[in-house]
Amino acid sequence: MRYLLLLFALPIIGCKYTENPQTALKQVIPKKQIVLEGLNHPWSMAFLTNTTVLVTEKDGSLVKANLATKEKQIIKGFPADLTDSIRAIHFGDNSGIFEVLLDPNFTDSPWVYLSYTAKKDGLGTTTKVVRAKIKNDSLYQHETLLLAEPYTREYFHYGGGMTFGADGKLYITIGERLFWERDEPEIPISQDLRDKRGKIFRINPNGSIPDDNPNFGPSAVPGIYALGIRNAQGITVQPGTSNIWFSEHGTILGDEINILKAGANYGWPNETTGRLRSADYTPPKLEGTQFTPPAWFWHQTVAPTGLCFYTGDEFLHWNNNLFVPGLSRGSLWRFTIDGDTIKSAEELFLDERVRLRKVVQSPDGKLFLLTDEDNGKIIQIIPQSK
Amino acid sequence: MRYLLLLFALPIIGCKYTENPQTALKQVIPKKQIVLEGLNHPWSMAFLTNTTVLVTEKDGSLVKANLATKEKQIIKGFPADLTDSIRAIHFGDNSGIFEVLLDPNFTDSPWVYLSYTAKKDGLGTTTKVVRAKIKNDSLYQHETLLLAEPYTREYFHYGGGMTFGADGKLYITIGERLFWERDEPEIPISQDLRDKRGKIFRINPNGSIPDDNPNFGPSAVPGIYALGIRNAQGITVQPGTSNIWFSEHGTILGDEINILKAGANYGWPNETTGRLRSADYTPPKLEGTQFTPPAWFWHQTVAPTGLCFYTGDEFLHWNNNLFVPGLSRGSLWRFTIDGDTIKSAEELFLDERVRLRKVVQSPDGKLFLLTDEDNGKIIQIIPQSK
């Protein structure tokens, strides 16, 4: 269903309207419409066409689905070192398959970029980013782009969010992996530049390190772009700009939206808008360290996930707004933005709460939600006039 | 500045657009524009015309103002038993002038309805509702409609919100007046039908009691329509319906929006979405009492105040939305509603916070805010295309 939305900021000349203007003043309201069901905790989605998608299931497979015919097919050749929640059987286990992205130049360069939980027997698990080409519903020519060692036996906060920047570089969020702050080493993981965890990476599509990355000194892990991250799952580019925005999970409160800046330190665990989970833990003083505050933080727990900007034409007043779904509140947040400033925040679908992992826009400007459920769904947000 | 907003839910036939549709897709965003300054904590506003208003100043006077010429004039003849924060000098004193309403049939029946803090020497203060006719910028022919005795020495939570219902009756919120729950008598004030405080009243415009009010039994104060209220300041009718909505201040959290139902008990202090301020206080069991839950409660403190529904044509997507300003967060909340269900909640003007007491719409559909400041302002929300 398509609506033609037209808004004129000036009086219209040369057009006659026979309708009563009041009748024409119809409101367009968003409705949820289930497009596909039966997905095993879907995490992300990449559009091959306007109706054909690659979907990652956190607790399942990489799946190709046709949103029109509802056909689903498992993509063969996923890396064998994948582990997931079902296999690991830990309470609250966050592991599985995360992001899926297509190469910005996919037609000529059919790479698919994937992040997931990789295991190594006897050592544990970590976040891994690979790319592989796709043909006949199979992955081939696999390349490892980032392995966020060490492998550990903590089963939380892998991060795994990815986006291509306006600069063509691949930006990757790696979580801190701890559940309790009392388990932090002397220098907190996210603050330690020798440790890959709790960072945002910027790499070339082939995994090499760009020359113009921020310089953190010789002992820093190559590829770090920002630090002080607890668990960021969503990262996205603001259309028409080079700005990158990312969501971050707090502990007790502390859920945030941040604007990515080269070399920035987002403060975890030394500075947070929430409270530490380990009441007896005090982070060490880090003399001279500057922390970058978030663009937004919630006064409630929402567990924000895969965000995106809206540029479709179905909801005129949503143009260039930032959408952020959440797991724990199960609602969708809409932010209007002016430069780096968040002007307003709307919580949508208050009476239809369901754990949401991702919001994503199709090439033709339709908006879709992925639900974090055993019977995971792809839900389209459709306009209805009232 | 006027904008012509047109939205078509169906393809347009018989009209040609020479513009590029993408250029026409302009967003209308809300901006604040100060219309009038120098008001002493304005509380409410009633429109005599589209540009002439009566404004109550909580800490001042009843003022007539012209929003175009900026002229202000004090209305003479305000009741002499008025007390206000400046005179009382108590920390956090809530007293002063509150609501101003015009008679629904004002042209023929030029009554002005006012709520305010009345004092009685030696006894204290209470909420009082009067009406008086207005002529030559003076009030005359005063009538007392409701005196919420007892007078007490508590200086908090007067309520004072008023609206005319679709039924032509006058609805009035009276606060509970306590600050600490430990000061509650054996039966909490709001739960005691023999006490006028912590109630919503429904009376005829002349102060008499309608025959069809809920029957709370012979010992109940006449005129009670609902109970279990802590401090409701905002009450308004939903256009096109007979529904009445009111805002309510909680203690530590517990800020709510409620739908008014005849005979309903909103639970204070026995049931609240917040926490009691007196940790050592336990409300008595009230066997067989049914409490009505709110339509909405916040997970943060906003101190919601004078609310209204929007029916203007400047912001198409706001049509029939409920607007609720707040004191403590200083932002404006927008709610979309379907029947009794709140579908979405938006917090506006996040980077322009100022204590807000009231949102009110002019007869020609413009939206205005009153700021709770020493230099109190009337701010118009104007549409700007982006």
UniProtKB/TrEMBL annotation, chains A, B:
The keyword Cell membrane does not apply. It comes from the Bacteria. It is an enzyme of class 1 (oxidoreductase). GO terms for molecular function: oxidoreductase activity. Its EC number is 1.1.5.-. Keywords: Oxidoreductase. The keyword Membrane does not apply. This is PQQ-dependent sugar dehydrogenase.
